[in-house]
Design a protein that fits this description.
- By secondary structure, this protein is α/β, with parallel strands linked by helices.
- The chain folds into three domains: about 100 residues, DNA polymerase, domain 1 (Orthogonal Bundle); about 180 residues, 3-Layer(aba) Sandwich (Rossmann fold); about 60 residues, Winged helix-like DNA-binding domain superfamily/Winged helix DNA-binding domain (Arc Repressor Mutant, subunit A), CATH 1.10.10.
- It is about 45% helix and about 15% strand.
- It is built from 17 helices and twelve strands.
- The strands form two sheets. Strands 1-2-6-5-4-3-7-8-9 form a nine-stranded mixed β-sheet, sandwiched between helices.
- The chain is elongated, with a radius of gyration of 23 Å.
- The relative contact order is 0.10.
Amino acid sequence: MHSDLLPQVALSLLPGLGPVTIRQLISYCGSAGNVFRSSKAELALIPGIGPKTAEIIKSASNQEEAEEQIDKAREFGAVISCYTDQQYPSRLKSHDNAPVLLYSVGKPAYDRSYTVGVVGTRRPTPYGTGVVRKILTDLFPFKPTVISGLAYGIDIAAHKQALELGLPTIGVLGSSLDHIYPPAHQGIARKMLNQGGLVTELGFGSKPEAFHFPSRNRIIAALSDALVVVEARNKGGALITASYTRDFGKTCFAVPGPIDTPASFGCNQLIKQHQASMLTSGKDLVEQLKWKVPRQQSEISYQSGEQVRILEVLRRNPLGVHVDQICRKTQIPINRIARELLDLEVRGEIKAAPGKKFVLNRK
């Protein structure tokens, strides 16, 4: 534990102090520890603080609570990071209202070259979940981190598809790490720990209260290079996240839908009111953001691993092999075979043939 962690946590637990105020205090005092060591008179002179806030700080008696938070994080295998720490996500750090502290678990890939947020209704149609699958498959060659809120509907569809494709994915919670919400998604949350992670600004013991979720949405927007809204009704969290995205000066995309479908009303309105760019495929995002396939993708060797076994099977069967046969011949688990086939296909090594078959791409 670094020396300033305890006062950082204690400062974040003080009532009535938001991120902007806490940043102001740390900026003027030099550290969270120095905030508590400053006199009431010194604190009151800091712009935007005043006697009332100074009194709150000087009368604070929450060190024991802060110690409990740190102990719980240690037991949980979680990391607590302050916005002044090196591991704090750079995309988030630049925003004044970003959380002072983040609690995270797993391997959240905050600072990869590309990130994309995917949000939408909690009651999607088959069209909506199919669109999520198509968009993330289109974006697969660029290996983005997929960010969403672990909620029912479009959110969990995005996390599941990212896991299936082998893309890193981050779930931003509107509760603490020990209160995964909804509980039905705990299994997916556990899988995400090895392929991304979970993050929240809420300390341990915080339940999923309704007022937590709009604040959670600003984190999704800040961590994402672009936001994709897939099916949104006339109000809800997806539209709030879209609003934050625009406020942060980032690109918001919306997927159009049938004009008589309530699930598409919000997306169609975002497009109609020029609050989001229309997105019909991942290509639209790639072209607008000028993404490029990571250089290492074209330099990966196929001389070892599961892809080598797939290529060998296809070499021996030039007329094509059904996906089930590839799975059986290579002994690659069914939950990974689609990802490996897609990876080889986007690199131009193989191509799909009729009847769920694959053949070598003879260049």
